[in-house]
């Protein structure tokens, strides 16, 4: 991306539609005067009095128990250094965002204009009654060490400097697994640490707590090896003074087993790497440039296990695997601190999770041909693994209880884990998964209306993010003019079917299309004229293998886009009727709705087919379908024709597809409310399960419902996803947003990947 455009887009992102990345949202009703009287005066006096009599009641009547302060003075921000408290605020807001989306923890970011450690500590102490925990961020060493120590000593709530301990815990989990894979013992490995800042020192100390011998560590800072010849060392560095006669990084690397890089890019050479012991382990975690290039390292040593801080290589050491879940566990038992036992518990939980079979939902992000299995390329869980929230917080909470720092011990662990699982909410993780899966194998996607600004913007995002390789279709002059206006400078294919340059291609496509349509009253001249239409032309590109997929329909009615596709692409073998589903990302999680676009009033057999085909689509996302077929009645309470239709569809499904979890007819509230369903209809096979797929009795109800959910529930809609076509072509909703187009592009890519794999 051009630097000037990157700057502009970043500034717009942070400024629009409202400045910043977080906001405060009420959690109680405020509609009536009664509500307001309870929220403030006079009703608020009562919980105030309760807290005055017992300060612990703060957790009962306020948000303190789920509120963390992200605090900095801006002295060591990212790669920017000492930029001051005001300039650090966007970073702290970003941290707050991660806390919320990964662990449902609320955050106030606090930027303090104070560099004196003692004064800084006093300020934080004075603020502490507001918070259930404190995350220190981007404070320079060595002051960060003392600030954290003093706050831990002076406060009775969890305090953690993530720059130190986050990297330490994640890298430690990865290191334990890497050492296990090469059949070595941690007590015997020789480790070189490049870097001696807060994260490096904290990491080394944590490794020691797991058995690494201090005398087997060589630590190197910007001035060289930390040895007994140095006179410029602070107390933290003195702890790692080596007595060995080693003065350079090059010397330190000879016969070493492990290299940990928390310093700067490109300081480790392939020559140094080759001097390491058999089966070396290298964690080059400097960002954006690792201490040694990944490809260079892997080509130098075939026996190497390597991790980086980057997402585009295997084994990413990412702090987001740690801090949201560690604080989640600490808050949930009202821990007085985050102690070493809790950190070690998080390490073990992360290490063990990497050894467990990976859910299909995670596997699918990397392509169906590549399964994530514990090994050299998978030693640490992925950040979007949905199991993190149910694995790490319980381990941390239990360690807090066992070590005596938990004030509210958990008694019902099953219920606690269910609560954690429900905190995921509007699962934007699924969107990240979809995008990651699309990127795993780049596909060529036609944007058939690229002369529309929003479509072109979406194509630009897809190109830059590596989601698809876009083919821009439309009026060439208009496309080029729009590209210039949005700084879209990447080389892409632009096709205008009406341009004379496409005459030869149209003749080629016409021969195929004529064979399909000659019995429908179309002449060769008719067919050639039809191919000047971009949807016909694009469909033929996909059918002929000149493109992998296509998106259409942004500026056309659904039927006018669908008919050319059906005439060209046709239905898949064995499919009598094409249908469509919408994936809705709601506050309760992902929900698939069918049929939202095509079948006006399907009969029982057609409803059953729609359910079967929708189930296949749900599985494409790595989700096991649990299906309710909706009606105004429940399980035969009405003998109307409409209800009987659904009962017949259910009978067909139960008889012919016994493995499919489906039931009905059922009202929507009973389908979505497990407690209601259990109390009234305990016989249903939906009991005890979370319904994630709804089949509607007709197009009216499906289309109306998904659009109401989209507008009123603030749900993200992805779709309609066409089911049953012979090729991966999809139709956008009229006037779809840029975000919706990007998401559908990713879906189209995944659909194409899936079909290619299935054919092999």
Report on this structure.
The structure is a single chain. This protein has 760 residues and is an alpha/beta fold. It has five domains: 63-157, Rossmann fold; 165-317, Rossmann fold (3-Layer(aba) Sandwich); 320-423, Rossmann fold (3-Layer(aba) Sandwich), CATH 3.40.50; 436-568, Rossmann fold; 579-724, Isocitrate/Isopropylmalate dehydrogenase-like (Rossmann fold), CATH 3.40.50.10750. Helices cover 45% and strands 13% of the residues. The chain has a six-stranded mixed beta sheet with strand order 7-6-5-8-9-10, sandwiched between helices. Strand 17 (626-630), helix 27 (641-656) and strand 18 (661-666) form a beta-alpha-beta unit. The model has no long low-confidence stretch (mean pLDDT 89).
List the main descriptive attributes of the protein structure presented here.
single chain; 760 residues; alpha/beta; Rossmann fold; 5 domains; 6-stranded mixed beta sheet; 31 helices; 21 strands
Summarize the structure.
This protein is α/β, with parallel strands linked by helices. The chain is 45% helix and 13% strand. The strands form 4 sheets. Strands 7-6-5-8-9-10 form a 6-stranded mixed beta sheet, with helices on both faces. Strands 18-17-19-16-15-20 form a 6-stranded mixed beta sheet, with helices on both faces. Strands 13-12-11-14-21 form a 5-stranded parallel beta sheet, sandwiched between helices.
